[in-house]
């Protein structure tokens, strides 16, 4: 008997003497993201480019001496800090004014794709059966169509307008997001809180929004980061091909197309938007990776 008591005391002492460093505690999602070095770097890069894109138009014309559409000198000649473009407009002015639309369109396209894809994926997983099979096969058909080809076809038919760009990119994102949402929903569909909500006859829409959606935000947040990266690249590519914003509007993708003919003698008209798009893409990619790691663990070691 005394031996058993001694063993219990020894176990209690050992438990009390567990090093503090091995204990874990729950931390909020964004603190887990910022606890990672790549998360901090990604946030810094993304914030820098976004701040530049949003504040740039406000600096014109007093910071550069000209607006984004004003002719100031001969084409590809020295003017100000970065010279002029193919029509003699200030490269710096057009660069400062050209990022706002790209970021807004990318965010809106990603948001549209997230809403459509999440709704379809959650509904397919929850209803199941033949409805799920039909939705997923239609999803596979859409996934088989190359994103850029679909965008080119739609824009050629409907015209290079802002709402067309946003809608097309958002629709092409939706099937991929739907697959992620469906998979995440299947993992939680049989949890007790879902069964309890069904027992109390909660309306299906409310159940999906209030019970299911909050419990799959981790995978969806990771997918949102990836889709935002792809939206930036797709919209910049379409602008480069002349199917995005039309001249004389300032746009980073359009700037690359307009000034590529003089890359050897006046590189800044191409390099500035290329560097900005690259930094934004790298930043959002790093954030997406950090979201994935932060979602995988809800605790950190103290």
UniProtKB/TrEMBL annotation:
Record flagged with keyword ATP-binding: no
Stored InterPro entries: BP-dependent_transpt_permease, MetI-like, MetI-like_sf
Compartments it resides in: Cell membrane
Major site of localization recorded for this protein: membrane
Domain of life: Bacteria
Residues of the ABC transmembrane type-1 domain: 99-288
Topology in the lipid bilayer: Multi-pass membrane protein
Record's GO cellular component terms: plasma membrane
Keyword terms: Cell membrane, Membrane, Transmembrane, Transmembrane helix, Transport
A single GO BP: transmembrane transport
Transmembrane residue ranges: 41-60, 102-129, 228-247, 268-288
Pfam families assigned to the protein according to its UniProt record, in alphabetical order: BPD_transp_1
Family as reported in the entry's similarity comment: Belongs to the binding-protein-dependent transport system permease family.
Protein name according to UniProt: ABC-type dipeptide/oligopeptide/nickel transport system, permease component
Native source species: Brevibacterium casei S18
Lineage summary: Bacteria, Bacillati, Actinomycetota, Actinomycetes, Micrococcales
